[in-house]
Amino acid sequence: MKISVLGCGRWGTFHAWYANKIGHEVTLWGRNKSCRMAELMKTRKNEYLTLPEDIILTSDLKAALSGTDIIIISISAQQLRTFAHTIHDLGLSITAPFILCMKGLEIGSGKRLTTIMTEELGREVQTAVWVGPGHVQDFMQGMPNCMIMASSNIPLTHHLVDIFSSSLIRFYYGKDLLGIEIGAAAKNVIGIAAGMLDGAGLSSLKGALMARGTHELSVLIKAMGGNKMTVYGLSHLGDYEATLFSLHSNNRRFGEDFIQGKPFIKLAEGVYTTEALMELAGQLHVELPITHTIYEIVKNKKNPQEQLKQLFLRSTKVE
Amino acid sequence: MKISVLGCGRWGTFHAWYANKIGHEVTLWGRNKSCRMAELMKTRKNEYLTLPEDIILTSDLKAALSGTDIIIISISAQQLRTFAHTIHDLGLSITAPFILCMKGLEIGSGKRLTTIMTEELGREVQTAVWVGPGHVQDFMQGMPNCMIMASSNIPLTHHLVDIFSSSLIRFYYGKDLLGIEIGAAAKNVIGIAAGMLDGAGLSSLKGALMARGTHELSVLIKAMGGNKMTVYGLSHLGDYEATLFSLHSNNRRFGEDFIQGKPFIKLAEGVYTTEALMELAGQLHVELPITHTIYEIVKNKKNPQEQLKQLFLRSTKVE
Asked: Which intervals hold domain Glycerol-3-phosphate dehydrogenase NAD-dependent C-terminal (chains A, B) (predicted)?
C-alpha cells in the first residue's frame, strides 16, 4: 500500500516509521521551511527515532497527495482547517481516505476535526480517526498498545484496521465517531487537571478525577447525540494511563508546570480543547465542572489550590 | 459520639486515629494475643501513626461492643464470617450500626460482606460499607481524598456521612450497595493485573486495562441485579489511582512481585477476590476475561507474559 503521512513532528514521523515497518511504501511530507523537515532530510533522525532510507521525504504537498492509497494527517489540531483549505485549493481529485491522528477540537467553534474536513474538502471526503493510548517513546522501545480506529463508514474502518494492525498496535473498531472524537480531545483536559493535582501535592485525588472526568464527558457526549458509554472505552478512559500518569504526557506536564509557576514553551493542546469544550457546554447547556475549573485557572488566573479543592472536596454528592 | 473500631491493623488504627481526630470518643479493639495490639498498648505506635492517649485500647470484645454508637470493622475480609459469628455468640443486643472498611468477597461462596453480616448476626443488623480511594500513608501526610459510604438504608448512610466527613475525607453517598461492594472488592483484582503489567514491562497496557477492567465488572454487576454504572464511580474506577498506580498498593505490588518471581509474605486480598469472582462468573454465566487471566496465572501457573499479551493483544474487538 502507498501511504502518505502529512506532518513531520513526533507523531507524524512515528506514523511514517510504523507504516514502513509493517511493509508499506511511505512518503512523509513536512513544510518546506520547517526546521524539522530540513533536519530529517539531512540526518533522517529526530529526538525519538531514525527513519529508514526507503521512506520518501518531501515538502511537495501535491506530490505527497497524488497516487497514494491512504493519507495520514498528523499536525496541530488548531491548524487543520487552514491545512485542509490548502489541500482543497490544490484542486486535486483525491479519492484516498484520510486518517487524522491528532486529538483536539476547534477553538471558537467547538467543532470536531472530521467536521472540519467535510466543511473544507466536501461531503465526499472520507475521514477516519486513529486515537487511543500510546507514547512514541514507549512504542520505540517495543511496548505494545491497543488503539482505536473509527469512522462513520464501517467497511472503511475495517479496511484501515486490517492495513495497520501489527503485534505492536492492536486496534479496536470504534463505532461512535462523535463520542470517540470528543473523548479523545477531552482527555487532554483531564490530563492538565491531573498535572495540576500532581503539582499541588494532591495526586491522591487523581482517582476521583478519573471517576468524575469520565462522568462529565459522558454527559456532554450524550447531549451531543453520541453514546454516553464511549468515554469509558479506549479513546478516553483507555488513554488515562498515558495522559494522567505518564511522565511523557505533555498535557499532564503542562498542568504541573503551570501550577508550580514554571515556564512552558507552548500551550498544551488541552488548553485549546478546554476553551472549545466550554463553547460546547454553553451551546448545549451542560455543566462540565472539571473543564470549567481548568478554564478558570488557566484563562481567568483563579487560585489553583482553592479551585481544585473546591472541585473535589466542597460538597457531598450522591453517586 | 462513641465509636468502636474492631481490628488494629493499618486501616483499623487509621480509622481509630481519624475518628478521634474529628472529635469522637474512640475505643480500639485488637485480639488479645495479637502482636500488633501488644505493641500498641506498649508504645501507642505502629509503622504509620501514633495513637493519642485518649483512645481506649482493649482486647475485650464485649466491652468494645457495649454502649457504643457506631462499630467499625476493619479486619481481613476472609475472617469476617468467623468474627461475626463470634460477635453473635457473645449474646449482646447490639443496636449500633456496623461499618465495614475492608474490600473483599467470601472465597468459596462469592458472597458480599454485608450478606455475611446478615447471615451471622440476623436480618435486623444494620451494616454500611466505607470504601473508595486513599492510602493511610497519604492521609497521614494530610493529603485529602474522596471516599464513599453506602448502605441499603439511605437515612443511615446520610447519618454516617454527617458523622465522618471532614476536610481530610469528603464522602459521596452510595446508592447501589451491591455494585459498590463488588466494585470495591474487584478493584484489587485489577490492581494485581496492573502490577503484573508493570512487572512484565507492559505498563502502557494499563490504559487498556482500565477500560476493559471497568467494562467486565459492569457486566457482572448488571447480571447480579446492580447498576452497571456504579463501577465507574469512586468505589471502583475512583480507586484505580490508589490501586493501579500507587507504590503503596499491596495488590499492585503482589502482581509485580509474583510475575518477577520474587517472594511475597502473604497473598494479597485480590487473590481471594479473584477466586470469589470466578465463582460468581460461573454462577451467573458471565465472562470475566481479566479476572480469568489472573486466575490462570496465579492459581494454574500459566505463563504470565503469554497470558497478558493474549488478553490485550490477540483479537481485534468492537468497542
From this structure: 176-308
Signed CA dihedral, B166, B168, B173, B174: sign only: negative
**Beta pairing class for B145-150 and B127-131:** antiparallel
User: What is the chain B residue with the closest CA to A230?
Assistant: B319
pLDDT tens for residues A211-232? 999 999 999 999 999 999 999 9
CA distance B101 to B281: 25
* Count of pairs with CB atoms under 8 A, one residue in A, one in B: 158
What are the catalytic residues of B? 187
Same domain, A50 and A112: yes
For A6, the enclosing helix (H) or strand (E) is strand A2-6
Shortest Cα–Cα distance, B240 to chain A (Å)? 6
pLDDT tops 80 at residue B315: no
DSSP letters spanning B150-217 = E-S-HHHHHHHHHHH--SSEEEEEE--HHHHHHHHHHHHHHHHHHHHHHHTT-GGGHHHHHHHHHHHH
Are A120 and A9 within one domain?
Answer: yes
Q: Which residue is it, cell 486496534?
A: A171
Q: Do A316 and B215 touch (CB under 8 A)?
A: no
Find out whether A29 is annotated in a ligand binding site.
no
pLDDT tens column, B285-298: 999 999 999 999 99
User: Which range marks the domain in which residue B245 is found?
Assistant: 182-313
User: Does residue B44 sit at the A interface (CB-CB below 8 Å)?
Assistant: no
A142 and A38 in a common domain: yes
The yes/no answer to whether this complex scores an ipTM above 0.95 is no
In a domain, B318, yes or no: no
B154 touches chain A (CB under 8 A): no
Q: Which residue of B has its CA nearest to A312?
A: B146
What integer pLDDT is reported at residue B264 of this predicted model?
80
Residue A209 lies in a domain: yes
Q: Tell whether A156 and A232 lie within a shared domain.
A: no
A300: contact with B, CB 8 A cutoff: no
How many structural domains does chain A have? Answer: 2
A97 near B CB under 8 A: no
Residue B203 lies in a domain: yes
A233 labeled binding residue: no
Instruction: Look at residues A119, A140, A175 and tell me which one is the last residue of a structural domain.
Output: A175
Instruction: List the catalytic residues of A.
Output: 187
Pairing of β B317-318 and β B169-174: unpaired
Instruction: Check CB contact under 8 Å for A241 and B204.
Output: yes
On whether A225 is known to bind a ligand per the annotation, the reply is no
Contact A207 B240 (CB under 8 A): yes
- pLDDT tens, chain A, 319 aa long: 999 999 999 999 999 999 999 999 999 999 987 789 999 999 999 999 999 999 999 999 999 999 999 999 999 999 999 999 999 999 999 999 999 999 999 999 999 999 999 999 999 999 999 999 999 999 999 999 999 999 999 999 999 999 999 999 999 999 999 999 999 999 999 999 999 999 999 999 999 999 999 999 999 999 999 999 999 999 999 999 999 998 889 999 999 999 999 988 778 999 999 999 999 999 999 999 999 999 999 999 999 999 998 898 776 677 7
CA nearest to A135 within chain B: B204
- Given an 8 Å threshold on Cβ–Cβ distance, is A238 in contact with B316? no
Residues A116 and A41 in one domain: yes
Q: Which residues contact A302 (CB under 8 A, 6 or more apart)?
A: A296
Q: Of all helices (H) and strands (E), which one includes residue B140? A: helix B136-140
CA distances from A167 to A54, A147, A239, B7, B49 (A): 22, 12, 19, 48, 48
